Amino acid sequence: MVQTHELSRLAVYAPAGTLQAQAVQLALRLGLPMITKPAENTFLLRMTPQRLELVQTGPGAPGPVYVDFVAGAMGHRRRFGGGRGQLVAKAVGIKKGFIPSVIDATAGLGRDAFVLAQLGCRVHMLERSPVVAELLRDGMQRAARDVEVAETVARLSLAVGEAGDYLRNLDVSQVPDVVYVDPMHPARGKAAAVKKEMRLFRQLVGADEDAAELLQAALAVAGKRVVVKRPRKAQAIAGPAPNLVFEGKSTRFDVYLKH
Ligand SMILES: C[S@@+](CC[C@H](N)C(=O)[O-])C[C@H]1O[C@@H](n2cnc3c(N)ncnc32)[C@H](O)[C@@H]1O
């Protein structure tokens, strides 16, 4: 099993005040040191009154990485995203009278899971990085208090751990219609405008080089289909050829049908 990278110099930080006790709990849960004075060029899991965020300190460092289902890009997509016309809706097989249940085996920052939940799917998210799972949990808790998205968030659940193991031990009663897989893409050339924040995220989780094993586990359990998200021009994950391909501007969905 491939271990997640987790940044070596990561520490929990909260400004002095009421968040200290919560930050101590978080540091204990993750087995991370807690610091009170951040030095330059360290990685922090920073607890602020607004949110939990992953940050790198120092000049030129990327902006913080955090989960926000309410505002920002997710808020924009919620309003203008195109509903069932979206490629991902077609890829998972949403149609009139049928909304699949989904296991998102690579939850990450939960954006795809949230979009699927907005389309009505119940989505059980799996994430093997305990740090990413904390960011996700924090985003879910905040979103659950927002009237506009609370109903959508109620369709999301989260488990921390290796998705392959989880899928192999799944009870028949828990079999989802769809297993959704979006492994961390292979690093691209420097021409690619990968946002700095995403580079920080990549440093945290590493490249998901065991994606082929995960695809196998997903194919073994999915009730109806497995959907794999890839960069448009990337090779399919090693294994059987997809039955359907939905191609967008920069992204592609490879669909493996069970029947
Ligand atoms: C590219 S990100 C997913 C982004 C996500 N689809 C989103 O919309 O935010 C991949 C994530 O999947 C997680 N991951 C990869 N392989 C996994 C596995 N076998 N089990 C659990 N989590 C996995 C990584 O830790 C990483 O957080």
TrEMBL record:
The keyword Magnesium does not apply. It is found in: Cytoplasm. Signal peptide: none annotated. S-adenosyl-L-methionine binds at residues 111-112, 127-128, 182. It catalyses: guanosine(1516) in 16S rRNA + S-adenosyl-L-methionine = N(2)-methylguanosine(1516) in 16S rRNA + S-adenosyl-L-homocysteine + H(+). Transmembrane segments: none annotated. Its EC number is 2.1.1.242. Its main location: cytoplasm. GO terms for cellular component: cytoplasm. Keywords: Cytoplasm, Methyltransferase, rRNA processing, S-adenosyl-L-methionine, Transferase. Pfam families: SAM_MT (PF04445). One of its GO terms (molecular function) is rRNA (guanine-N2-)-methyltransferase activity. Coiled coil: none annotated. The keyword DNA-binding does not apply. Specifically methylates the guanosine in position 1516 of 16S rRNA. PANTHER family: RIBOSOMAL RNA SMALL SUBUNIT METHYLTRANSFERASE J. Belongs to the methyltransferase superfamily. RsmJ family. This is Ribosomal RNA small subunit methyltransferase J. It comes from Candidatus Tenderia electrophaga. The lineage of its organism: Bacteria, Pseudomonadati, Pseudomonadota, Gammaproteobacteria, Candidatus Tenderiales. The gene is rsmJ.
